[in-house]
């Protein structure tokens, strides 16, 4: 179950654009996978995938600059926010709706050479395919329906816990992997001047 974080607030794409112009110390931290970040990101943002952020939450909480957290839709940014707040970070905001809302609002986007699907889209494809395969197999092997049910149960748990085991597994596929995040370099850049 997720809870509202009282020390952070969401802001819309237009508000973020305005903040970018008003505050040169503002840092945008993108917590999506490296593959998603390479495909498209807000120019000037820094990529620290959520698993890496979790390992270095205390270091990232020591960044004095205000930080806006970004992911694809907002769920991973909320998880990152909870981890950073628990580590002592106070001046945090979350881009409401993530990159989906940023792009819909016409926000500037840096595109990479390789286009990958967003993780939530990959999860929907994998889950849907597995459910269909389980249902098709159940016409020959009736017990296969339980496989489809297990996928549905996993998706329900994912929604209730605001976690995604399938997304974590998919992020490890070669297609989604990029060079490892150099956290020390990112920390130095986050703490310095843009």
Describe this structure in words.
- The chain is an alpha/beta fold.
- The protein has two domains: 8-116 and 178-191, Oxidized Rhodanese, domain 1 (3-Layer(aba) Sandwich), CATH 3.40.250.10; 119-174.
- 51% of the residues lie in helices and 11% in strands.
- It has helices at 13-22, 34-39, 50-55, 57-61, 75-86, 98-104, 119-137, 145-161, 165-171, 183-191; strands at residues 8-11, 27-30, 40-41, 46-47, 67-70, 92-95, 110-111.
- A five-stranded parallel sheet has the order 1-6-5-2-4. A two-stranded antiparallel ribbon has the order 3-7.
- α7 runs antiparallel to α8 (145-161) and α7 (119-137) packs across α9.
- It is elongated and about 60 Å long.
- Residues 1-7 have low confidence and may be disordered.
| Residues in helices, as a percent range | 40-55%
Beta-strand percent range: 5-15%
SS-based class: alpha/beta
CATH superfamily of the largest domain: Rhodanese-like domain
Sheet with the most strands, sense and barrel status: 5 strands, parallel
Distance between the termini: 36 Å
Q: Provide the number of structural domains.
A: 2
String of helices and strands: EHEHEEHHEHEHEHHHH
How many separate helices?
Answer: 10
The gross shape turns out to be elongated
Find the count of extended strands (DSSP E, 2+ residues): 7
Question: What is the CATH architecture term of the largest domain?
Answer: 3-Layer(aba) Sandwich
Main sheet: strand order: 1-6-5-2-4
Q: Examine the coordinates and then state which fold CATH places here, giving the name of the CATH topology of the largest domain.
A: Oxidized Rhodanese, domain 1
* Low confidence ranges: 1-7
User: How many whole angstroms does the radius of gyration measure?
Assistant: 18 Å
CATH class of the largest domain: Alpha Beta
Arithmetic mean pLDDT = 85
């Amino acid at each position: 179950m997720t809870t509202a974080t009282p020390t952070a607030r969401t802001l819309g794409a237009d508000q973020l654009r305005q903040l970018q112009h008003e505050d040169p110390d503002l840092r945008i931290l993108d917590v999506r996978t490296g593959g998603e970040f390479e495909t498209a990101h807000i120019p000037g943002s820094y990529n620290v995938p959520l698993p890496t952020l979790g390992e270095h939450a205390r270091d990232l909480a020591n960044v004095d600059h205000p930080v806006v957290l970004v992911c694809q839709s907002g769920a991973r940014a909320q998880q990152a926010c909870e981890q950073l707040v628990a580590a002592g970070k106070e001046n945090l905001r979350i881009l409401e709706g993530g990159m989906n809302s940023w792009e819909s609002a016409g926000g500037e986007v840096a595109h990479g050479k390789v286009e990958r699907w967003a993780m939530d889209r990959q999860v929907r494809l994998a889950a849907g395919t597995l459910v269909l395969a389980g249902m098709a197999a159940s016409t020959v092997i009736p017990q296969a329906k339980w496989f489809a049910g297990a996928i549905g149960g996993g998706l329900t748990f994912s929604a209730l816990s605001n976690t995604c085991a399938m997304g974590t597994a998919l992020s490890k596929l070669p297609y989604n992997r990029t060079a490892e995040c150099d956290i020390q370099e990112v920390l130095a850049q986050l703490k310095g001047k843009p």
